[in-house]
Every structure is written in C-alpha cells, then in structure tokens.
Write a structure and sequence with these properties.
The chain has six helices and no strands. The chain is mostly helical.
Length: about 100
C-alpha cells in the first residue's frame, strides 16, 4: 500500500470533480494562511494526478524546466503563470468577497 500522497494522486486522477475541488480548497487554504510551501506541495499533487510536469508542459506550452523551477523551488508563482496553469485544466482564478454583508 502506498502513502497518502500517492493515494491522493490516484484519487484525483480518477475523479475530475474531486480534482477541481482539491485545487479550489488548496487555493483557499493558501489565501487564508499564506503557507506557500504547503500550497506548492498540494499544487504538485494536483499536477501529478493530471499527468505530471511533462503533460502540463504540453498543455501550457511552457517548458518543463521553467514549470519545475516554479513549482519545486518555493518561489511564489507569478499570477500569469498560475493563470496559464489553471487555464490548461479549464479552470480560472476568480474574485469573491471574503465575507458576506448581511445588512437588512
């Protein structure tokens, strides 16, 4: 039996809806706590579940070395890089209020 990371990769590879939910949750957690190391590790789990860096390179047109440098060197990805990665999986960044104003 494999470890938790391997389980997550297999699960996300076989369930596209769960993969998108995982990606959404990962971004929400990063926005809440600012933990870049955890964020990049979880993004890498998602990317591995979708074919890894070689597949991402094909989808984005960004060379694998640049993607690896961005993902594995704990450097905050530029917004355009993150947007390109998300678009390659038919996702997008969105802006939502952090709280709901419920004045009546």
């Amino acid at each position: 039996m494999g470890n938790w990371r391997e389980y997550q990769i297999r699960r996300l590879a076989n369930d596209p809806e769960a993969a998108i939910d995982f990606l959404r949750m990962t971004l929400e957690e990063y926005l809440a706590d600012g933990d870049l190391t955890f964020f990049l590790k979880e993004i890498c789990v998602f990317i591995e579940s979708q074919g890894g860096v070689p597949e991402l390179s094909k989808r984005t047109g960004i060379d694998a070395e640049t993607l690896s440098d961005t993902l594995f060197n704990e450097v905050t990805p530029r917004l355009d890089m993150l947007s390109t990665i998300l678009k390659s999986f038919e996702c997008q960044l969105s802006v939502e209020p952090m709280y709901c104003n419920t004045k009546t």
